[in-house]
Write a structure and sequence with these properties.
Strand content: 5-15%
Largest sheet: 6 strands, mixed
Distance between the termini: 28 Å
Radius of gyration: 19 Å
Shape: elongated
Number of strands: 6
Strand order of the largest sheet: 3-2-1-4-5-6
Order of helices and strands: HHEHEEHEHHEE
């Protein structure tokens, strides 16, 4: 489905207990058309993910070793998982989020302080990793002042881009 930029939902049952629905048949057809039945599909996916991980990890480590401050934008429940995947969780200084119930608290997993997104231009991290990547265009559009002052947004998923 298209939830949060693309998700896979599944259910399991014993064969023959439930008829295959039209939605299931459509999903199976789509998976086949996308090449999921090709044994190389997932090995290629793993290779691309490894390349992405290596690029993000090495860049963030280089920036941090050069003295840069690094923040994340988006305190979603998936953010700690994403930062762990890239092995950069110990290089994040803070997290910005526009949800009032998250602000002033600490993000689960690593305890990063969650700041109001309006503070982005006050804090002025050198690099801000957009963990809410499906909202990248909106985030960039709403934060032109941050970019104008020299801040950089970094898309880490689905591809690595420095803006």
């Amino acid at each position: 489905n298209d939830y949060q930029g693309g998700s896979v939902l599944g259910a399991v049952a014993r064969a023959g207990q439930h008829p295959k629905s039209k939605n299931l048949n459509n999903a199976l057809r789509l998976e086949h058309n996308l090449g999921f039945s090709n044994p190389n599909y997932f090995s290629n996916f793993k290779r691309k993910l490894t390349q992405l991980t290596d690029s993000v990890k090495s860049s963030v480590k280089n920036w941090k070793s050069d003295g840069a401050t690094i923040a994340a934008y988006g305190a979603a429940r998936s953010t700690p998982t994403l930062l762990s995947l890239f092995e950069i969780e110990d290089m994040i200084d803070c997290v910005f989020d526009n949800h009032f119930q998250k602000q002033g608290k600490f993000m689960g997993g690593f305890g990063f302080p969650v700041l109001n997104t309006k503070m982005l231009t006050e804090v002025m991290p050198d690099y801000t990793l957009v963990t809410a990547w499906s909202h990248l265009d909106v985030i960039v559009d709403q934060n032109k002042e941050y970019l104008g002052k020299g801040g950089k947004f970094v898309s880490i998923c689905p591809e690595f881009i420095v803006i």
